[in-house]
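Sequence in, structure out. Go.
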Amino acid sequence: MLKVEIKAIQEVGLKKTIRFLIYALLGVLYHNLVDHLLAFSYTRKTFLIMLGARFGSNAILMDVRFINWHHLGPKGFKIGKECFIGDGTLIDLYDSITLEDQVTIAQNVTILTHMNVGYKNHPLQKYFPKFSKGVIFKKGCVIGASSTILPGVIIGEKSFVAAGSVVTKDIPQNTLVVGVPAKKIRKIR
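Output:
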């Protein structure tokens, strides 16, 4: 076990390791104190704002899980006015995530902003190199329960992603998409 941790520290460097440990402690604080003992949307938002997140008025943040605090972190998390993020949603803070006004994200949605198969010498790195790209949710879009949004995706204004869909590419405005991978069903007028 110690060999694995030493290899990881050598690969990322001491400075990034210390940053990881600090943000790991902040994550523990958020998930165990702020989220469970002080389980109010206001408390969650206040904690994240202190770490650099931005929230518009009347935004509601339910029991949301965050990963990769130690990369871009909360400073890359921007939520507009009257947004809602449901219970059990998993948010990857490796890169930026922007929700414009009136975005609704239902329960158990996964929002990813990066992909990495493993260490630099992993045999699949040459086929699937590490990358990250922010995700944008345009004004008034809705993401159905248990959907997955992949890195770099832009969900168009007033579009609807049906429950359980996997979004692998940008969705135009006023569009209903369904499935794995998500495909256009019809325009919303």
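Check: The radius of gyration is 17 Å. The first strand starts at residue 54 and ends at 55.
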